[in-house]
Amino acid sequence: MATVKLDTAGLNKMRALDDATLQLQRIHALVEQYAMALKRNQPTGAFVMNLRRQLPALAENLKGYFGMLADQVTGVNLAASRGSSEQVRVRALREGVAQIRQSLEIAAAQTKDKHARPEDSAPDGAGPDAA
Question: Could you write out the DSSP letters of every residue in 1-36?
């Protein structure tokens, strides 16, 4: 059975996607902490400021290889900064994080398909029929 490996560009893109996934997990944790603080009537200003700092960093890391994803992250950041009620802001952030996560998964699958470089498991001449 042939194994699938990625070329150099594919490896770089996958590394960027892995880093973005880790950052998105941190952002998701912040969104959920923000929602819990809001539910408990605790101060939420620190969470909003931290999210508004983290989202542009995620967009910047994606910009080199995935411009459309970076634009999507920027859109979520804009939605988080709108002057609406806090419940609407939490809903927009949760939906935005879910959309970004889905887009990252799709980008990873497309990167694997596009940059696949099939290699045989046995080197040339070393197969079972070689004498």
Answer: --EEEE-HHHHHHHHHHHHHHHHHHHHHHHHHHHHH
The string of pLDDT tens digits covering residues 77-102 is: 998 888 778 999 999 999 999 999 99
- Tens of pLDDT, residues 17-76: 999 999 999 999 999 999 999 999 999 989 999 999 999 999 999 999 999 999 999 999
In a domain, 127, yes or no: no
Structural domain boundaries enclosing 78: 3-111
Prediction pTM value: 0.81
CB-side neighbour CA atoms (13 Å) of 71: 3
Q: How many residues does the chain have?
A: 131
d(CA 66, CA 122): 35
The total domain count for the chain is 1
How many distinct helices (H) and strands (E) make up the chain? 4, 2
Q: Is residue 69 part of a domain?
A: yes
